[in-house]
Amino acid sequence: MNKLFFILSICAVAMLFGCTPPEGSASTEQSVVSTDDDRSAQIELLFDKYVLNEWDVMDMYAENVLCKINNVEFSGRDNLIGGFKMHHDALYSEIAIDDASIQTEYWSDGSVWSRAWFTWTGNGQTTGEGYSNRGHFSYKWQDGVIAELHGYWSEDAQNAESAAYAAANASE
Known about the structure:
Elements: H1 2-18, E1 32-34, H2 38-52, E2 61-69, E3 72-75, H3 77-91, E4 92-106, E5 112-124, E6 130-142, E7 145-153, H4 156-168
Parallel strand pairs: 2-7
Antiparallel strand pairs: 1-4, 2-3, 4-5, 5-6, 6-7
């Protein structure tokens, strides 16, 4: 009986310590997700400024930010801001962002991504049509600025309003 107890004790100790990963291994590193950190607050500020048609915070984007919007890839902060401004200047009024959920992921490899899920709404300036669209943005941070922006949403509203705008302005 003592032999059996001794063998079971050794096996239990071996299983306990044999399954512990060595210090500093990748399996001990953890990624962290936060919703109340500075980066998440910065994304919320970007949304607020977009809705207000204010662009004084655009230096949060790298000058050569890589943008992947649905199936279109382009780069440059000026190109990105130009698209955002067009929403206000030519396509929509009463723009709002509601139901936003924002989180920032601090990965064990050192990369940092913020993600946002939201509902965008606006009224077409040409059609008068009201639009509502769920969207998702991912922001990759490097050196304190957003180096990449990935955006995903249905393009139906933008295509319809852009076509109406182009038709209304074709004779000018």
